[in-house]
Specification:
By secondary structure, the chain is of the alpha/beta class. Strand 3, helix 7 and strand 4 form a beta-alpha-beta unit.
Length: about 350
């Protein structure tokens, strides 16, 4: 939009552009009334040429006149802030917080793993002669029976326990209650169990895989606790077992077959009160501790020290690679999510056993 001076004031037009005589007060008063202040980006013509106007004061425009040579402003007169918006600053701060937390988690993981690898051999925390002491008489070593529900349970959950007991010279026997035939791979998984036991230095003759029609793998399969107790009794007598290791009442992963094994062992112990067989269960952990990897060594050790009178001990696996090798022997089960489980599971690095 352009504003031109009326034709009847040629001298005033020349004065406004810097040529001719200076305008008098009457002419300036007429200009102020002729072009009032306009809102927004519309400026009065006096504002456009105010730098050349030889007037003692600027006309009352909407905004102060700009200096000569500066570009006009075609947007709102609201002041722009040189700082970041509040939402961007908040996102930037949150990003830094997450970066610091991630760096702290990686550092804690590295320190915990270094603590585990610092052990020269599989160890027990706290060191106590009361945990599986040598038997009286000529036989110094124990015959330990590990009772599991499926092939791969021994490698996925009990590797620290097996490696510790082997380092102390105890004889390990494994009783697997099913072939893990839920997907039709029962024979394959049975052979894989023998290969995993070779990695863990357990002879084939000390491994037994059952295939009872009432003890089939499956989340919806309910096992008879009395049958589990009966089969356990047979192998306790066959191998002269004096110590049993198995799942606790939750079964570590919550699998119903794991729970049934625990209840079957409890029923066996109830029926065999006069015997000299002691039993230990693997403590189930909450999901945070379960997937904390080697970091859980600090809390588990603290719990074992504070509850030593309750017969709770933490077994440390000084060679986590042995757990990887044993689990990798189960080729049919060695899929991507189980690889992640073995890497991040605390059961790869430590086991917490408590007496039943």
């Amino acid at each position: 939009m352009s504003y031109d001076l009326p034709l009847e004031f040629p001298q005033s037009r020349q004065a406004l552009i810097g040529h001719g005589p200076r305008p008098n007060q009457a002419q300036l008063h007429f200009r102020r009334r002729r072009w009032p202040a306009l809102p927004g980006a519309h400026r009065c013509p006096l504002h456009r040429i105010g730098s050349r106007l030889p007037s003692p004061s600027h006309p009352p425009c909407a905004t102060p006149p700009r200096r000569a040579g500066t570009p006009p402003v075609f947007f709102s007169s609201r002041r722009r802030s040189s700082s970041l918006p509040a939402s961007s600053a908040c996102c930037f701060s949150m990003a830094w917080i997450w970066m610091v937390l991630a760096a702290g988690a990686v550092l804690l993981w590295a320190i915990s793993l270094g603590r585990i690898l610092s052990y020269s051999s599989p160890s027990c925390v706290p060191l106590s002669p009361q945990f599986m002491p040598p038997l009286r008489g000529d036989r110094r070593s124990r015959n330990v029976l590990l009772v599991v529900a499926h092939p791969d349970d021994e490698s996925m959950f009990f590797a620290p326990t097996i490696l510790f007991l082997k380092s102390k010279g105890h004889n390990i026997h494994i009783l697997c209650m099913s072939r893990g035939n839920a997907d039709g791979l029962g024979n394959t998984r049975k052979e894989e169990l023998y290969h995993a036991c070779e990695t863990l230095k357990i002879p084939h003759e000390q491994v037994k895989v059952l295939d009872h029609p009432k003890l089939q793998d499956g989340f919806h399969e309910q096992w008879d606790h009395g049958l589990v107790a009966e089969l356990t009794m047979e192998h306790v007598l066959l191998w002269a077992i004096d110590t049993i290791v198995t799942f606790d009442s939750y079964g570590v992963s919550g699998h119903p077959n794991h729970k049934d094994v625990h209840h079957g062992i409890c029923k066996f112990l109830h029926a065999n009160r006069q015997g000299n067989v002691e039993a230990w269960e693997l403590a189930s952990l909450n999901i945070l501790r379960k997937y904390s990897g080697p970091v859980d060594i600090w809390l588990s050790s603290l719990i074992s020290f504070s509850r030593s009178k309750q017969s709770i001990y933490t077994l440390v696996n000084s060679s986590p690679s042995r757990s990887y090798e044993a689990m990798a022997a189960h080729r049919s089960q060695w899929v991507w999510f189980r690889r992640l489980f073995v890497m991040f599971s605390s059961y790869t690095y430590i086991n917490t056993l408590q007496k039943i």
